[in-house]
Design brief:
Layout (H helix, E strand, L loop, with lengths): L3 E6 L1 E3 L11 E3 H13 L3 E3 L1 H9 L8 E8 L2 H14 L4 E4 L24 H9 L3 E4 L12 H19 L5 E3 L7 H10 L3 E3 L18 E2 L6 H9 L12
Parallel strand pairs: 1-5, 1-10, 2-3, 4-5, 5-6, 6-7, 8-9
Helix pairs in contact: 1-3, 5-6
């Protein structure tokens, strides 16, 4: 069964060496080489609407299919990642927390990391006008699994409504903060009207997965180009059975 590799990024830029949270950082020079490789070897880089259509069977999954996802909405996406993506004509989705726009990412401070600024409303509108997709990273940046089902639904619904009011466009795609989700999370997203939800579970996305619990492959600070290529083509199997509604 042909699948799609959803690559997970967070920040792109220049960073000092670190021992923890390495999947939160990608050196901009390495990112530039990764995108050039995708272009040179004719990977099909899909947006999330196309991912949803492929996995539902509405359109065929192309060979070497990839989607590029960016969590949290850091300002360095605008300064570093966006120009590289535009140079290659690649779509991408940025998942943002609508209650934290323009603020520092304070959750990183607990582990001694810098707290870079998140994009504000004007910057998100600019990104959308440039062709990038904006998705929801929930109303607040906290874990969903274990919360009461109605709370999960309300936060997913409200984050969607806020982004739609802000951007004037439907918000169809969701990313679970920290990848945290349970069966109630999938039901909450379905009730709120999302088409896809992405996790931190490592595997290739196929039609076997519920579209509201799609796996991704994290690109980490120390990943060489060869390491990223291995992640693209390795047939990862989930460590636990995928959740389905």
């Amino acid at each position: 069964m042909r699948g799609i590799s959803l690559l997970m990024y967070h920040q792109v830029g220049k960073f000092p060496p670190m021992r923890s949270h390495r999947a939160t950082y990608c050196d901009v020079d390495r990112f530039r080489r990764q995108m050039a490789w995708l272009r040179a070897f004719r990977y099909h880089v899909l947006d999330m609407d196309q991912v949803a259509a492929c996995l539902s069977g509405a359109r065929p999954v192309p060979p070497r299919a990839v989607a590029l996802t960016f969590d949290d909405g850091y300002e360095n996406f605008l300064t570093h990642a966006a120009p590289i993506l535009e140079r290659h004509g690649f779509p991408a989705i940025v998942y943002v927390v609508p209650t934290l726009l323009g603020r520092p990412a304070r959750w990183l401070a607990a582990d001694g990391h810098a707290t870079p600024r998140l994009m504000d409303a004007g910057q998100l509108r600019e990104l959308q006008a440039r062709g990038f997709t904006i998705g929801s990273h929930n109303l607040v940046h906290e874990r969903m699994a274990g919360q009461p089902p109605e709370v999960q639904y309300q936060t997913a619904r409200d984050s969607k409504a806020r982004l739609e009011d802000l951007l004037g466009r439907p918000c169809h795609h969701f990313c679970y903060p920290y990848g945290s989700h349970d069966a109630a999370s999938l039901q909450a997203l379905a009730r709120a009207g999302y088409r896809t939800g992405v996790t931190c579970q490592r595997a290739t996305a196929t039609a076997d997965f519920d579209p509201l619990a799609l796996p991704r492959k994290a690109v980490s600070f120390g990943d060489s180009l060869a390491g990223v290529l291995w992640k693209l083509h390795a047939k990862h199997r989930p460590k636990r059975p995928p959740l389905r509604r």
